[in-house]
Amino acid sequence: VLSEPRAWTELTSNHISLPFEDGRERIRSLLLPDRADPNPTLLVLLHEAAHHWTFLSAVGSTLAALELRARRAVYSYSQSNPLSRVLDPRAVDDLVCFEVATELLRPLGEGLALFAEFDSVPGGSSVISRPIEWVERLFPDRSVQDLSTRIRRTLLKVRAMEASRWRRENVLAQPLHCSEGGYLPGYLMTKKSWHSLWLRSLDQSRLFDDSDFFLTYMRSFFFDDLGFVSLLLDPATDRYTALERLSTYLNDRIVLFFRHDAESLVREFERRVSTPTANFWPPMNLSTDPVLFDFGRDRLEQTTREMVQQIAQGPENAGLFADLHAGVLAHRALLELIRVPARVKVTSQGHVEADVDGRPLYADMSVEGATEGEGLGSIEVLLSGIDGTRVCAVHLESRLVSWRTAPHVADANAQRLLFGDLYNRDVREHEADRWMRLRHRLDGTEEIAAARAELPTVVDRIYLNKALLFVPDERLDEVVQAMAQSGFLGLLGETDLVRGLALLGLFVTFGLPIDKAANLFSSQGLDLDATLNAATRLHDSIGVPAFAVDGYYRCFV
Amino acid sequence: MEEGTMTNATELRIPHLNQLERADLEKAFEQAGARQDVTFGHEDLTGARYGDPFTVTAIVIVSVTALKVLASWLAKSRHQKTIEQTFEVVRKDGTREKRTVRISGQDEASASSSVYEQMAKLFGDTPTLAGAKQSNGAKSTAKK
């Protein structure tokens, strides 16, 4: 192993992996949330929760459907008579489409997740983004009644920690090119678009003062875009055309985001998103061509109907396919925060106890049908992406033996929605391994190889100039070259200046009070004056938005 | 290698460095004329996984020079009173163990010396290192 495992979220299953080193302590704090102090773990959670949220969207669901449809075709092929079998050609089309879209959207998805982590703060609007809402449930500050105020307090406290700056400086010094994950270009593009929309809204709604509202709006603009859905499900988008069609559409959509008349949409958007009883389907049309929007809605509804029919079909599709599809689909709304090994005991009276490292962590009644026994199992904490319900589940070996929720869920249908997948966890994990093996066999397919070869150039072409929109045209090539390997380190030359820039930018939303800045910088061993000089140089030479106004420093990098 | 290679441990791995820590460490090795003794690796996210930006693991070929560079780098990068750094020690027989170096409340020069001593302890059974330490006049708690 070359490195610490990274936290990640997988698009199709929407499964989150959070490799916390101190898992046992963490699960205690998650189980006893009143005792949890906010710490930089919150930022890791925010990042992955933001991915989970973007994947739980019209575009995310469509991509999951494409991959599941391809899996089904490949399984049918692998199980049929070798002498007569033919692979459904749509499987390769679906896979190319899935892979191309996943890579095209990657910098955008990472940009949104990094914005959630470092910049998003609820403000004047009535909207609170899902990641912020979910994480707040895990680290509630009971001393403050008002939700928005206590979230702001928690975020301010965490972002002032040195560990937060450490995470942010790592982003600012990432390579500029998208082949390394697209973190820096995606983040810069997101920040720049917020800056543009914020400037334009200053003498109107001022809704984009609220960075968390901006995050919610931007996520919907791209990931609930039924125009993109329409293209993904269009039979004309095949292995030969996917790259050209999807990249052209996405590029135009990003250009539109910078230029569209958001003011005419934001009030209605705010109203719809903040209404608790809002109907989330179809999502609001945010400047998508109405014809394309309707096509997208119809195609996704049709695809969903087909999948539901396949799950419910007769004996030839029972078993693995049914479990797989039902399991994956149910799981997409469950955010698995952590799972640790535990010693689990089920008594004959239907009582379950679970110990971690000899310390009792769980005691409750067993689920119906759980048999008496004792042995190794696990204890895990999950969060419902639909309503934020916190779930604690205990398995003995691979059998679910007990669970409880906060708040309590009494309704049987709601329980099935929450726990359908927990019963199928083994199936899901077994299936994921099997799929990876089968999937690799298709990697040699000419069209998949061709799309992969072209993707890095195409993705760079979409994102780099938008990420560096603040740079004058005549200096663009020079700046791209300087930032290619190590981002802002290539521009500033000194690591401590990048650290300072990372710290300064952490407070763009709150504003860093000028009279408190020097203390904050010196507490982290950094030189405020040197950082301000560097920010001024970046502003004067290449237009990086950084300034002091009304007693606060604000830096949009 | 100018001051000899360790006879027992072959590698030190320092996980979870961010891009700036990597740059500082790389520069420190370069200035000591030992750039070839450090390499960096990171884990890629595969398939349709989005996630945390990557951090790197430094893989250091153990030598007296390398330990001095590491000690100086750690002492320099401290701006809090406490330094805590976990290493993975890879020995010639393939065994690995995690070790943590901790110091607190010292100036940069003393901190560097303390870190060096603690790291040297990890390789205290190494004659090359013991000899080199004495010739460099550094305090050592690694003598047997």
Report on the architecture of this protein.
Chain A is of the alpha+beta class. Chain A is built from 22 helices and 11 strands. A 6-stranded antiparallel beta sheet of chain A has the order 5-4-3-6-7-8. In chain A, about 45% of the residues are buried. With about 140 residues, chain B is an alpha+beta fold. A 5-stranded antiparallel beta sheet of chain B has the order 2-4-1-5-6, with helices on one face. Mean pLDDT of chain B is about 75; it is low at about 1-5 and about 125-144. The interface between A and B is large, with 48 and 26 residues. β1 (about 10) of chain A pairs antiparallel with β3 (about 50) of chain B.
Which regions of chain B have little confidence, pLDDT < 50, spanning 5+ residues?
1-7, 125-144
The whole-angstrom Rg of chain A is: 24 Å
> What general form of chain B does the structure show?
globular
Oligomer: heterodimer
Strand percentage of chain A lies at 5-15%
Q: How does the overall form of chain A come out from the CA principal axes?
A: globular
Class derived from helix and strand content of chain A: alpha+beta
Number of strands of chain B: 6
- Class from secondary-structure proportions of chain B: alpha+beta
| Count of DSSP strands of chain A | 11
How can the largest sheet of chain A be summarized?
A: 6 strands, antiparallel
Whole-number mean pLDDT of chain A: 85
Neighbour order of strands in the largest sheet of chain B: 2-4-1-5-6
Euclidean distance between termini CA atoms of chain A: 33 Å
| Helicity level of chain A | 55-70%
Work out the largest interface and the residue count of each chain. A-B, 48 and 26 residues
